[in-house]
């Protein structure tokens, strides 16, 4: 398996749905009414249900990432950072892509670690709406050496 900074996914589309926001909010035990009650969200100035701040992690399920699809080892989730130009609300559709920005090899106490820094970008009407930076870590075991 091999990784190179600069690898990128194809563009993919995500439409945000009421039920998806509600299910995600429940799964992370976020009981904020802005994620469940359209009336409360509109009273707070949003056009529809507001997605929780970490919602874009669901977008990874849609992306086709050849460099990760080839793996048959567990990934360790490292850091994550979200930056919003505008909030994500139900009914929005985004065109997204994920870029592998940086690849580092590090000797850890348990062996070699590969640190993969990714950036997910979400666009509406050709304007950037949000980014999400995600670090994934792969422990290199005998038989799964990374190039």
Can you describe what's shown?
The protein has 147 residues and is mostly beta strands. Helix content is 14%, strand content 38%. It has 3 helices and 5 strands. A 5-stranded antiparallel beta sheet has the order 1-3-4-5-2, with no helix packed on it. Strand 3 and strand 4 form a beta hairpin. The longest helix is centred in the first third of the chain and has 10 residues, at 18-27. It is elongated and about 50 Å long. The model has no long low-confidence stretch (mean pLDDT 92).
Give me the secondary-structure topology.
Elements: E1 12-15, H1 18-27, H2 38-43, H3 66-69, E2 76-84, E3 93-108, E4 111-124, E5 127-139
Antiparallel strand pairs: 1-3, 2-5, 3-4, 4-5
Explain briefly what this protein structure is.
The protein is mainly beta. It has helices at 18-27, 38-43, 66-69; strands at 12-15, 76-84, 93-108, 111-124, 127-139.
Low-confidence stretches: none
Strand order of the largest sheet: 1-3-4-5-2
* Whole-number mean pLDDT: 92
Fraction in beta strands? 35-45%
Radius of gyration: 17 Å
Q: How many alpha or pi helices? A: 3
Biggest beta sheet attributes = 5 strands, antiparallel
Order of H and E elements: EHHHEEEE
Q: What's the N-to-C terminus distance? A: 6 Å
Proportion of residues in helical segments: 10-25%
The structure class reads: mainly beta
Total DSSP E strands: 5
Can you tell me the overall shape? elongated
Features:
147 residues; five-stranded antiparallel β-sheet; mainly beta; 14% helix
């Amino acid at each position: 398996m091999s990784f190179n900074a600069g690898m990128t996914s194809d563009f993919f589309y995500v439409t945000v749905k009421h039920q998806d926001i509600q299910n995600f909010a429940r799964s992370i035990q976020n009981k904020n009414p802005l994620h469940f009650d359209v009336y409360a969200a509109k009273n707070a100035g949003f056009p529809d249900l507001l997605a929780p701040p970490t919602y874009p992690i669901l977008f990874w399920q849609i992306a086709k990432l050849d460099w990760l699809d080839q793996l048959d080892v567990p990934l360790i989730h490292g850091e994550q950072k979200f930056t919003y130009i505008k909030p994500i609300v139900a009914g929005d559709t985004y065109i997204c892509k994920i870029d592998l920005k940086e690849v580092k090899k590090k000797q850890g106490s348990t062996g070699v670690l590969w640190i993969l820094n990714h950036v997910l970008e979400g666009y509406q009407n050709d304007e950037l709406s949000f980014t999400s930076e995600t670090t994934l870590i792969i422990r290199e075991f005998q038989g799964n050496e990374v190039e």
